[in-house]
């Protein structure tokens, strides 16, 4: 089996795998409170399994800044949305190394019974989902605050890839030996759907809109596309020995590394066809994008290097030597963070205070706002938005239309990459009829905006 072969080869000293209308409104205001934090540029975190350490690369300079010792045979990588912590799955070590994004030191170790292969962090940063080789529980849920396992899923074993939907509602994991992709409800940890994949699925990625899930299939010579709307699957042929796919930040493409062919297959998410094949170094195993989508980084295992490709031209712009076999299972580039202040901007027809927004009590509406780009889905402060009843400042003018009702699931934040607009489906109570409320929308950095709501 793929992962087991790599461990055995490490033991004997040889390489493994040798053989729209919402957007029409103008921005009505800019909040006066802004974040003052200026955060660091992204880093790439590439495990070196045979060295039991982690190569940390500054993608601004394309230089290795540190080799950090972790656990035994590290391979999986998961990064919190804020970049505060990086989680390294130590397959042979039965553990997870927790690395500080600020200091690049190991700050904790999470011990496990099974052999962890891959991980993914929920959009709010509160949960770490881990696939492992275990006789009973292939999927674990870890609380990122206590760093304890809080739930486990008993399903098809030999977990070999995991991803979380952008809204945090579902987690997807692949089973290497069972050729299955399982779709799990994160609230109930119950199976929602499953699909047959190609031979030896290795790695899962979800498009930014959450509608498509791709699974690389090492011996299936391609990728399995799972439609998250219809819960159906189809096979897409790429190259030989594909591994660890990555969806582009704009959602237009999925890149798949073909290890035996020394190529990357670029799949269009619109046509579900390979539209381009580009050369790489020897034995590409993993690919990840910078947050702005301008560059893709490819881990070439047998070249002992990481290759930087400019997405616009598909040309290699840098090759970063890492001195040993690299292998990054999962998203290994830290989530991007903005430089300078963040502002909340509401989008029409939502109006800022002191203007009133009219709506029907008991309905749900989309609170639509912009943060100047994609800042991830973990932007809302805990418990936000909040509301409290107030004395109505004035009556709703005759003929004032209600805010359009939302058809989305209440309580979940979404992001539209095409319009750059966030939407939070806010549910209201029927008992609020003929009252007014002050609604506060607050971000994790303390930025706050208030809206006034009057209910019919």
Proportion of residues in β-strands: over 45%
| The CATH C-level class name of the largest domain | Mainly Beta
Estimate the helix proportion, in percent: under 10%
Per DSSP, the total helix count is 1
Task: Name the structural class.
Answer: mainly beta
Number of E-state strands:
35
Tell me, what's the shape? Answer: elongated
Distance between the termini: 62 Å
Mean pLDDT: 84
| Annotated CATH topology of the largest domain | Methylamine Dehydrogenase, Chain H
CATH-defined superfamily of the largest domain: YVTN repeat-like/Quinoprotein amine dehydrogenase
How many individual domains?
2
- Rg, nearest Å: 23 Å
Largest sheet, if any?
4 strands, antiparallel
The unreliable regions are 7-40, 336-343
Outline the structure in words.
The protein is an all-beta fold and 456 residues long. The chain has two domains: 2-19 and 40-321, YVTN repeat-like/Quinoprotein amine dehydrogenase (Methylamine Dehydrogenase, Chain H, 7 Propeller), CATH 2.130.10; 345-455, Immunoglobulin-like (Sandwich). It is built from one helix and 35 strands. The chain has one helix at residues 2-12, and strands spanning 43-48, 53-58, 63-69, 74-79, 85-90, 95-100, 106-111, 115-121, 127-133, 139-143, 148-153, 159-164, 170-175, 180-185, 191-196, 201-206, 212-217, 222-227, 232-237, 242-247, 253-258, 263-268, 274-279, 284-289, 295-300, 305-310, 315-321, 345-346, 356-359, 364-370, 386-390, 413-416, 421-427, 436-442, 448-455. The strands form nine sheets. It has a four-stranded antiparallel β-sheet, with no helix packed on it. It has a four-stranded antiparallel β-sheet with strand order 8-9-10-11, with no helix packed on it. Strand 18 and strand 19 (232-237) form a beta hairpin. The longest helix has 11 residues, at 2-12. It starts with a helix and ends with a strand. Residues 7-40 and 336-343 have low confidence and may be disordered.
